[in-house]
Write a structure and sequence with these properties.
Oligomer: single chain
Helix content: 40-55%
CATH topology of the largest domain: Alpha-Beta Plaits
Order of helices and strands: EHEEHEHHHHEE
CATH architecture of the largest domain: 2-Layer Sandwich
Number of helices: 6
CATH class of the largest domain: Alpha Beta
Radius of gyration: 22 Å
Number of domains: 2
């Protein structure tokens, strides 16, 4: 994995540090503590030069001077866990609840049937269904071994 580390030097006539933090987070940088102020991890297929250009453009006009150091670092278990967690967060898009609600059949649906219909892991569908039940949008009824979710 390639990581670019950024060290900042602020000018009191420039942008506030809180604004610079917001800007850099917006281009995928993470604040860190230590010798550098931020890091940006480059994922497979992501261009280093495009990443550097986006950082440069983001800081343009802020009055902040910066330096970068780019290193190749070995993938760690923590990095892989973070990537998986990011994938889970992406798949839990706010519109999943809407998609689930739209897909519930007239006679109700099970979590498994919705999971297959939407091509979304069953655990994520169950989470969305529980939120919809808690909000009062759906009813949850037990039929045999299964729970059926019905529109109100």
């Amino acid at each position: 994995m390639i990581k670019t580390y950024i060290k900042l030097q602020f000018d009191s006539n420039g942008a506030k540090p809180s604004e610079v933090i917001r800007i850099l987070k917006g281009v995928g940088c993470s604040p860190i503590i230590g010798d550098f102020d931020f890091e940006k991890s480059l994922r497979q297929g992501e261009s280093l030069f495009e990443a550097l250009d986006s950082i440069h453009e983001a800081l343009r006009g802020t009055g902040v001077q910066y330096s970068v150091t780019t290193r190749t670092v070995p993938d760690s278990d923590a990095d892989r866990k973070e990537e998986r967690a990011g994938a889970v967060r992406k798949s839990e898009k706010p519109d999943l609840e809407e998609r689930v609600l739209e897909s519930v059949g007239k006679n109700g649906s099970t979590a498994l049937s919705l999971s297959k219909k939407l091509s979304v892991p069953k655990s994520e569908v169950e989470s969305a269904l529980e939120k919809l039940v808690e909000s009062g949008t759906l009813l949850k009824k037990k039929r045999g071994r299964y729970h059926i979710y019905l529109k109100k």
